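We modelled the chain as a single entity of 170 amino acids. Its sequence is:
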Amino acid sequence: MYMEKLGVELPLLLTQIVNFTIMLIVLTKFLYKPILKALKDRKRQIEAGLQMGEKAKQEEEKLDLKKQEVLREAREETKVVLENAKKDAMRLHEEIIEKGKREVAEMKRKLVQELEGRQREMEADIKNRTVEISAQMVKRLLGEVLTTADQHKLVEKQLEKIARTHEKKS
């Protein structure tokens, strides 16, 4: 009765308490627990995503290190290939120069031989012509002064002298 003075009716209060309890049970069972479950699932998904992100970051770092290592090895291999190519080029260059020197020396040797042969031919030709001219001059000059036998002796003597002089020069 005291409560009735306050304006609270007991059956209405009990009905509201029962309604509130039913509502609390229904909300807890159908709304609060699923929301908590969804929040827990979401939290696990976020943690899993963070772990996967961390793993991905670690994998990326590993791949970056691997990439740097591969690039370093490629640079080293490139240096080795370039050095080998330079050595091969220098060797080839030297071989070409040596071959050119040998060819020039061979050409020079052949030219010298050819010139020496021509010189011998010219000397022989000059010798023959000189002898012929000398013989003709002697015949003309001596024909008037000496007898035929004296002319032959003198010509032979001069030819021997010319031949000896020529042999000394050769």
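As a brief sanity check on the tokenised model: The chain has a mean pLDDT of 87. The radius of gyration is 64 Å.
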